[in-house]
Amino acid sequence: MGIHPGTRKEESQSGQVLPTSLEANGLKKSSWGVLITGVVGGTLVAMYAVATPFITPALRKICLPFVPATTKQIENVVKMLRSRRGPLVDIGSGDGRIVIAAAKEGFTAVGYELNPWLVWYSRYRAWREGVQDLAKFYISDLWKVTFSQYSNVVIFGVPQMMLQLEKKLELELEGDARVIACRFPFPHWTPDQVTGEGIDTVWAYDMSSFRGREKRP
């Protein structure tokens, strides 16, 4: 039985076009798959790079979270610094608000912060405010820093760390130093001055009040 020439031609054409079409679709899907995988992978890496400096401190035994100081808290800290002289340090300086405010008052101010993103941002803010010569920021764990060279110490702490920090500062600071605590007071020290109320409360402790007492072990 004969086969019509047109039918043979259609079969031949069909046999050539179908595999080529499938191959093109497969390549297109493969390209999209690689692109999507790359985008998702890149996004995850970027999220990890940004989030890790914020998450890592929370994994420590004592966490000092970043909570920006309110305008009133900054005003109260500056109030406690009136008539004070000497270098200042902000322990856990966050986005640099306290250090920059102190620098504007003429203090040589230093901030120690574990989160590198916040340190870089603080440096930028200091430059933008024109106090980059007086305000310096360093990436460091507060427990690895010695504070004996500072006459003024500011801390926005949490209750879990205040006792340990109280002992550290009492051992390291000179007799003319002043410690300013925000949000939470020290457990054993008696403040020389208190200002503000609620979350804006600030406690000032003069180390001269503790000299003569036996240092804590």
Average pLDDT rating = 79
Shape: globular
pLDDT under 50 segments (min length 5)?
A: 7-18, 40-61
Helix-strand pattern, N to C?
HHEHEHEEHEEE
Strand content: 5-15%
For the largest beta sheet, what order do the strands appear in spatially? 3-2-1-4-5-7-6
Structural class by helix and strand composition: alpha/beta
Distance between the termini: 110 Å
Overview of the structural elements:
This protein has helices at 5-55, 71-80, 97-104, 116-129, 159-172; strands spanning 88-91, 109-113, 135-139, 152-156, 178-182, 193-195, 202-206. It is an alpha/beta fold and 217 residues long. It is globular, with a radius of gyration of 31 Å. It starts with a helix and ends in an 11-residue tail after the last strand. 30% of the residues are buried.
Summarize the structure.
It is built from 5 helices and 7 strands; from the N terminus they run ααβαβαββαβββ.
Write the layout of secondary structure elements.
Layout: H1 5-55, H2 71-80, E1 88-91, H3 97-104, E2 109-113, H4 116-129, E3 135-139, E4 152-156, H5 159-172, E5 178-182, E6 193-195, E7 202-206
Parallel strand pairs: 1-2, 1-4, 2-3, 4-5
Antiparallel strand pairs: 5-7, 6-7
Keywords:
217 residues; alpha/beta; seven-stranded mixed beta sheet
